[in-house]
Write a structure and sequence with these properties.
By secondary structure, the chain is an alpha/beta fold. Helix content is 37%, strand content 19%. Among the domains are: 72 residues, no CATH class; 103 residues, no CATH class.
Length: 364
């Protein structure tokens, strides 16, 4: 019953024309032999009221993708190509002045580390109020009152007093909430959250995710959630893009991804999650190797050196991102020569059950 309700809600929120269309976005750092492609022809859409996840290990290109969308990469030392069409206008073609007008008012971002994102020598109220003064033309007094209301909205107690405090006087959870308040100040149509719960304890994580979920549901804001935590994906995202080596290797609706992962990398991420049902002392199943073990996409599949399902074509032919041959839906895309046939979680569950049965027989 729960899945049915979620699916219908997802369909309703994700319907209509995309607010943001990213097409063949590539980001290359350096030039010549030292050039490194951090994002490699990434494409996806985000519709109003939809939450789209970008998922993968550190170094897969998630954060660089978000910075390219927001126009926050440094002017020198990188090359950005492709299209980032927001409400019919390509953001990559806008001047910095035009982009700055939209950034903060229509586009907003919550960064991973709130302590380094906030100015340590400026009171919190001034920082939140500046956003309102810059983009809404408010005077200092009304901006301060509005800032207090924003802090109260995101759950910061005694917001009027907190306006006079500095970032170091707040807890990590409060600092992250303050960043969210700044991002929400001008009621943006698109919000990008770059691992907003990474440094927070479990209780605060749940509160932050509930706040973001409420924002999307009530205001119809489009949300891009960048994370390596599949638990966050399970509780928040409608559609999921799994990135590896700068490319999307699998795209699926949330429930479909967890029910039947098709790319070996996706299966490895799911299998590496600790479960409450596991026996104490059982070893986790991490993805072998590291992102440094990649091979260039031009020569095959970048994940091949770490893949247990590798076949000959994986080292010679670059797989294309195309509809899954199993016919699992029009929105299900896969980049793999030898996809998974079974959910690795099923094998783990069976193994756990057999181990428990064997332990019970030994005790008997």
């Amino acid at each position: 019953m729960t899945h049915t309700a979620t699916s219908s809600s997802t369909t309703h929120r994700g319907s209509g024309e995309p607010l943001l269309s990213v097409r063949d976005l590539s980001v290359t750092f350096g030039k010549g032999r030292r050039a490194f492609t951090a994002v490699d022809q990434v494409s996806f859409d985000v519709r109003p009221g939809q939450t789209v996840g970008l998922v993968g290990e550190s170094g897969c290109g998630k954060s660089v993708t978000s910075l390219a969308i927001m126009g926050l990469l440094p002017d020198r030392g990188n090359t950005v190509t492709g299209e980032v069409v927001f409400d019919g206008q390509d953001l990559l073609k806008l001047s910095q002045d035009k982009l700055r007008e939209r950034r903060g008012s229509e586009l907003a971002m919550i960064f991973q580390d709130p302590l380094s994102s906030l100015n340590p020598v400026v009171p919190l109220g001034v920082q939140v109020g500046e956003v309102l003064q810059a983009h809404k033309g408010m005077k200092a007094g009304p901006a301060s009152r509005q800032a207090a209301e924003l802090l109260d909205r995101v759950g910061i107690p005694d917001p009027t007093r907190r306006l006079k405090e500095y970032p170091h006087q707040l807890s990590g959870g409060m600092r992250q909430r303050a960043l969210i308040a700044m991002a929400l100040a001008c009621e943006p149509r698109l919000l990008i959250a770059d691992e907003p719960t990474t440094a927070l304890d479990v209780t605060i994580q749940a509160q932050i995710l509930a706040l973001l979920r409420e924002l999307v549901t009530e205001s119809g804001t489009a949300l891009i959630m960048i994370t390596h935590d599949l638990g966050v994906v399970a509780g928040l995202c409608d559609q999921v893009n799994v990135l590896y080596g700068g490319k999307v290797v699998e795209r699926a609706e949330r429930h479909d991804l967890f029910t039947r992962p098709r790319h070996p990398y996706t299966g490895g991420l799911l299998a590496s999650i600790p479960r409450l049902t596991e026996e104490r002392g059982r070893r986790l199943n991490p993805v072998p190797g590291s992102v440094a073990d990649n091979i260039p996409w031009e020569g095959g599949c970048a994940f091949a050196p770490r893949c247990a399902s590798e076949v000959g074509a994986c080292r010679t032919t670059t797989p294309e991102l195309e509809p899954d041959r199993e016919g699992l839906g029009p929105d299900r895309l896969l980049r793999c020569h030898h996809p998974l046939e079974e959910n690795p979680l099923d094998e783990i569950r069976t193994s756990d059950a057999e181990r428990r049965d064997g332990t019970q027989e030994d005790r008997a």
